[in-house]
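Subject: design request, 361 residues
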């Protein structure tokens, strides 16, 4: 089955740090046809980028990210990491290759009986790194995450954010080129989430890492990712640069994710204070997202003149993704239904994104 994806800014796949092609993975179910966790997924992650995969529970995100280091084997498809065809590797070569791929987990997966330093040393022990070499590598990894002074502590003595720093240090100890983050901030409070995302961003710069992360939170993608893929039912339904996907979402699932993150419903009290529409007109609440050359308020007054509508600005704010700003405005549009539709279509032609808002959430 062809992949229903809408891709933008696809990098040259031969240069990809991670290249996935046509991945299928089905899990046997009780009696029935089973679950298609991956239904033909292709993806390219460029070296040095932070790439986010977002989707609701059950979309197939975990299965996909686990296919990159072959914790999960796809039934069919191609997995290339740093140019290496992973599915061709024997056990020993695969173990070696995995050292270039660090992984960070939602629930940290630390060994409670080991100190912080011994947790970080663990993957080096498994890899057979001699003890004399391990100590400086552990010190280096702990310094990168700012936890040098906790080397002798046990996981139970740490906060959630500190535990995740240990998880990251452990992933970095074998000096990987790629970091996989499986819902790395989902168990953390918002402030600690920001702290960990900031750390991942700094580590990417400092160590030239390529980061692939999965999350169910579009806010994480907005904060940290360069590009994003939206997954649903084992498929990527949309992918592209985060700014483009946020400001011009094409797939309904993406629109819902974006609305949850940046959209705002109009408070009930505000709606109650709006004038009622006349008998021959309709009132519709709209959110207009401005980005690029037409991001000016003049567009609103021109739409009002062109289509003979009253367009009341209820609220507005400027937001940004990375360094790129965009504007969000809530409008109450009054006029005949057909003319409101025509104005919405005209906004669309100008490249603005218009979304109906619920009255009174
Ligand atoms: N080992 C397994 N055995 C059977 N079914 C599985 C297995 N792993 C995943 N699945 C099923 O495959 C589908 C995709 O699961 P997956 O964990 O990849 O989704 P997800 O997007 O990561 O969701 P979540 O955020 O809840 O983990 C789900 O329907 C899940 O129940």
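Subject: RE: design request

Done. Sequence follows.
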């Amino acid at each position: 089955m062809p992949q229903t994806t809408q891709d933008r800014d696809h990098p040259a796949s031969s240069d990809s740090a991670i290249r996935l092609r046509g991945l299928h993975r089905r899990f046997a179910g009780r009696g029935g046809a089973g679950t298609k966790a991956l239904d033909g997924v292709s993806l390219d992650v460029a070296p040095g980028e932070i790439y986010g995969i977002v989707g609701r529970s059950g979309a197939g995100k975990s299965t996909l990210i686990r296919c990159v280091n072959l914790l999960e084997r796809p039934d069919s498809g191609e997995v290339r990491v740093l140019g290496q065809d992973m599915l061709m590797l024997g056990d020993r070569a695969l173990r070696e290759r995995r050292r270039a791929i660090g992984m960070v987990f939602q629930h940290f997966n630390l060994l409670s009986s080991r100190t912080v330093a011994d947790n970080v040393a663990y993957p080096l022990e498994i890899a057979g790194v001699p003890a004399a070499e391990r100590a400086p590598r552990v010190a280096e990894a702990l310094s990168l995450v700012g936890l040098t002074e906790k080397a002798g502590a046990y996981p139970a003595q740490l906060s959630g954010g500190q535990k995740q720093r240990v998880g990251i240090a452990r992933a970095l100890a074998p000096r990987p080129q790629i970091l996989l983050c499986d819902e790395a901030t989902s168990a953390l409070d918002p402030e600690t989430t920001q702290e960990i995302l900031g750390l991942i961003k700094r580590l990417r710069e400092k160590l030239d890492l390529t980061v692939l992360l999965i999350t169910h939170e579009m806010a994480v993608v907005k904060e940290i990712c360069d590009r994003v893929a939206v997954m649903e039912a084992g498929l990527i339904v949309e992918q592209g640069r985060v700014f483009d996907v946020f400001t011009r979402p094409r797939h309904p699932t993406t629109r819902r994710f974006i609305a949850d993150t940046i959209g705002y419903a109009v408070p009930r009290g505000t709606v109650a204070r709006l004038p009622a529409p006349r008998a021959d007109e309709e009132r519709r609440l709209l959110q207009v997202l401005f980005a690029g050359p037409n991001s000016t308020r003049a567009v609103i007054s021109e739409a009002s003149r062109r289509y003979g509508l009253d367009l009341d600005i209820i609220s507005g704010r400027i937001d940004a993704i990375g360094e790129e700003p965009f504007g969000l405005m809530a409008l109450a549009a009054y006029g005949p239904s057909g003319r409101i539709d025509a104005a919405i279509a005209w906004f669309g032609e100008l490249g603005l994104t218009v979304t109906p808002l619920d009255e009174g959430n």
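The radius of gyration is 24 Å.
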